[in-house]
Amino acid sequence: MNSDRPFFRPSLSYWEIDHYLKDIDLLVVGSGIVGLTTAIFFKKKHPNKKVVLVEKGFLPSGASTKNAGFACFGSLSEILADLRFSTQDEVFALIAKRFEGLQELRTLTGDKTIDYQPCGGFEIFREEDESQFSACFDILEPMNNRIRDELGLEHTYSIQNEMISEFGFNGVSKMIWNRHEGSIDTGKMMAELLRIASASGIIILNSLEVSEWNDNQTYVQVSFANGLEIRAQKVHFATNGFAKSLLPDLDVEPARAQVLITSPIEGLKVRGTFHLDEGFFYFRNVGNRVLLGGGRNLALEAETTLELETTQLIQNRLDQLLKENILPNSEYEIEHRWAGIMGVGPKKKAILKQLTDNVSCAVRLGGMGVAIGTSLGKESTEMIA
Ligand SMILES: Cc1cc2nc3c(=O)[nH]c(=O)nc-3n(C[C@H](O)[C@H](O)[C@H](O)COP(=O)(O)OP(=O)(O)OC[C@H]3O[C@@H](n4cnc5c(N)ncnc54)[C@H](O)[C@@H]3O)c2cc1C
């Protein structure tokens, strides 16, 4: 590349170079929840700095526009599963981070804008899950006490078996309710974050995939798959499940998550957000439809992929769960199926890291990004400055 003309491409005008591509103070890579909130909080703190956000997809193309919209901080069986790999203090710190992160998101966007519904989160147990239920029952009061003492929330988890029949389930024998959880409209959340970013003066460029970067300590040279090259003072990667190709030393792997949504169902009884099986399956109503996702645990290796495709194995299991347990007596069609890519690793903990003098990253949000994404964006800003 000619070092005097880093933006050289015959098709670019003086105006395009001058307005979009020159004198960038912060380049954020990836326009998911983390990239957007990093850019938004940074611009709030440094209104005169030029912030550019680049995204490889024509829309954000990882997890943020594809998720289930659960505003949740942990079902008891998920917490028990986490305790197998982490200490009590680590697990509790994550619960607190998820709860506080949700408050941060709601404060930034406003509840009405993202259609936040304080419906609570239900964990259901089928007849074959009895022993899992007993283990959850054993930690229910200790968890309630710790959450009360540290987060000030009263009676977080309670047994609600008498409500099971209201939802029309089949083969479900026990249910635990977390009264402090809720749901959001994922599309509205992302539209609002994009709106706030644009209104703050952040430049958002889509269909631009970063292919290489180099921090020469004076600036960061960034190359794109389409041949464009630009410079930025600071670069922050918010590429989550895609991180490894540009940041090979990070311990983060892609994890595909598959979802389906039904047609509208007359007289639908399922209302709220629901989990089962350590959070590996989840469903909720979206108006009069049911959205159901999960099943990654059925094929963990095959689901360690960046391919945005659905598979027969997992979709068949979702269909079966819907038919046998969730909607046993309803008429419906499966209207749409899709997949998104999360970032996971050996620890259920995001990576927020300074990589070189001018390059940092915030990745590996697992299935918790609605909850922790906004606060991770805010923390990123503190690190970049
Ligand atoms: C199906 C599904 C259901 C989920 N349900 C929930 C839920 O109910 N509640 C919850 O809290 N979390 C949920 N999650 C997880 C949550 O969506 C993620 O944790 C969160 O969206 C991660 O946000 P992010 O900004 O870190 O990553 P992403 O949203 O993945 O954003 C990363 C972006 O970087 C872009 N990118 C990657 N590489 C490049 C490159 N080289 N150049 C330019 N751009 C690049 C990608 O296209 C992508 O848009 C779910 C995830 C999925 C997939």
Write up this protein.
The chain has 385 residues and is of the alpha/beta class. The chain folds into two domains: 14-65 and 188-251 and 347-384, FAD/NAD(P)-binding domain (3-Layer(bba) Sandwich), CATH 3.50.50; 70-185 and 252-344, D-Amino Acid Oxidase, subunit A, domain 2 (D-Amino Acid Oxidase, Chain A, domain 2, 2-Layer Sandwich). The chain is built from nine helices and 18 strands. It has helices at residues 14-21, 33-45, 76-83, 88-109, 130-151, 164-167, 186-199, 312-326, 369-384, and strands spanning 24-29, 51-54, 70-71, 121-126, 157-159, 172-178, 182-183, 203-205, 210-215, 220-224, 229-237, 253-262, 273-276, 281-286, 289-294, 334-344, 351-354, 359-363. The strands form three sheets. Strands 1, 2, 8, 9, 10, 11, 17 and 18 form an eight-stranded mixed beta sheet that branches. Helix 2 packs parallel to helix 9 (369-384). It is globular, with a radius of gyration of 22 Å. 43% of the residues are buried. Residues 29-35, 54-57, 60-64, 66-70, 209-210, 238-242, 246, 257, 259, 293, 340, 342, 365, 367-371, 373 line the site of flavin-adenine dinucleotide (FAD).
